[in-house]
Amino acid sequence: MATRRLTPRAALKLKPAGIEIESSGFTGNVEWYGKRSAGTRGATGEQDDLVEALADADLEDRHTLLLDGQAAEGATLKITVPAATDELQYALVQAEDDSLRFCYPQQDQASATGNRSTTTEAHYEIPLPKPVGQSGVRGLLAKTGKFAIKFVVTKLVPVAAGRFVCGVVGWWEERNRKFQGFHGGSFAELLSTGPQKFAQWNRLSAGRALLLIHGTTSSTAGAFQSLADFPAVQSQLTRLYGDRILGFNHHTMGRSVAENVRQFWQELPAGTFEFDVVTHSRGGLVARALTHLPSDAMESWQRPTDRVVNIRRVVFVGTPNAGTVLAVPDRLPGFIEWTANLIARFPDSVGTIALSALLALASSVAERGMATIPGLVNQQPDSQLLHALKDDSTAVANYFGIAADYGYGKDSSLLRLFENIFMDHAFTQEANDLVVPTGGVSAPLRLPSNRCHQFQQGDGVHHTNFFANPRTWDQIVDFLSRQ
Fold this sequence. Notes:
single chain, Rossmann fold, 2 domains, 8-stranded antiparallel sheet, 15 helices
């Protein structure tokens, strides 16, 4: 650790780190810590969630700066950090109130031909964040009362070595979401973090099965983990489906919904299958596409003729059936910041939205600018996928929805944070569950009120905690049990 004094009058050079800092509007002490150690974590107070996420995203915690002092309105720091030709980097900036921002080097680190750095320095211009409300919510990086800036670095891997078109994100899914396909049977098997491929297809000849489909960056175990807390619900579902309860794990960022559909059909053996489906978020788009996405939307791929799938009912929980502005490419940096702050504020969100996935997304931004992520493109309000799925109107009678209007307008710090990230207020003009517009779950499907349950602002339900609320499961069982 090294502590130095920073003022607007002179550049500060941290020789052990090779870092240079120029201040505009900030005066105070700067503490520098090198690669993560027990001492670094003790000083910064960073959370275990962040430590694990950095490792899962293959990011090295190379430098941490703690700033303790006075920042004027509009204060900025110009920081030069050493860079290597085979690495990319970005910075995590946390304010006194625990809000988290992502900052990227000013110049493009990647060359036009090799996705490799052409400079030995990365230059940042970091606005010191303004307070957005009460401090001490739940910081990932720093103790209350100090700014923290953490520079993280990862190695660049050539495309020839197996990179997806979306760069680091595809690699993250291959590493952290290795298991894909069907799994389950018992609830223990369904919710296991180490799922095994389902092979007892003869069980499904006894009757209709229940299929659970998770959302973006998640898994069956992550999205539906709270089901383990409701043994009565498990008993009700067992009465309806016996041991025919399956999950479908799939990649949600590096692959499109059409690719998920192809994988679904390819994983099935020959035969006829009937499912009721419970989905979360993007998983609802996969459910709609399983039988209703036209072949021309799947590059003329045809569903196998020796497999028949009948879907009796679908329950859409927080599904962006009208899309979400968070998935628009030029909002990707804002999406990363917003969801990372949700995880910091709502710790139970980690299973539903993986923090390490967001860090990998940030690496893609650092690598390629506004990266195109196939699984997110599908969720844009005007996406080709949503246009193609408008023809599933014949199935609407079998559709049900669960949505939420989260009352973050009453939470001044959360509202200010949202406005700081999305300055045009486009999303705050309509009711939403913090990720998906409330009306977007049911309106595109024209669901009547008796087939769509909406949580109100006072219920405290948002996009990542639907399944922790017993009323969600009660409603799901009701929908699935109706004659």
